[in-house]
Amino acid sequence: QWIVFSRITLVHKTQKERLTIDVDLTFENQEGKGDLKDIIIAEVKQERMSRSSDFMRIAKEMSILPMRLSKYCISSMQLYPQLKQNRFKEKQLFINKLKLQ
Fold first, then answer.
1. Which of 34, 72, 100, 101 could form a disulfide with 78 if both were Cys (CB 3.0 to 4.6 A apart)?
2. Are 31 and 83 in contact, with CB atoms under 8 Å apart?
3. What is the DSSP track for 30-82?
4. pTM for the full model?
5. First to last CA, the chain
6. In degrees rounded to 5, what are phi and psi of residue 100?
7. Contact 20, 43 (CB under 8 A)
8. What is the DSSP letter of 5?
9. pLDDT in 10s for each residue of the chain, 101 residues
10. Contacts of 85 (CB under 8 A, 6+ apart)
């Protein structure tokens, strides 16, 4: 299984924090391929969890809620529909909803 995406990394000047932004996510295996090109995945990486993150504050102001997401799990669900998907169904429904907007 191949997962390909472009990543932008922003590093905070004063806090021990960086923000990664993944775009143009595509994935494929021998049987098929798929993508999440319309979705941006942003992740705040901190030494210690802190709610004082500028990005987290702005995202909250914009009503963007955090969600734990594995690019590998989501791509596996789409590439291998025979896998049990109950645990990830809520996330998949949310992603489908985002793709329709």
1. 34
2. no
3. SS-EEEETT--EEEEEESS--TT-HHHHHHHHTT-------HHHHHHHHH-TT
4. 0.82
5. 28
6. -80, -20
7. yes
8. E
9. 899 999 999 999 988 899 999 999 999 999 899 999 988 999 999 888 777 788 988 999 999 888 888 899 889 988 988 888 888 888 888 888 887 76
10. 77, 92
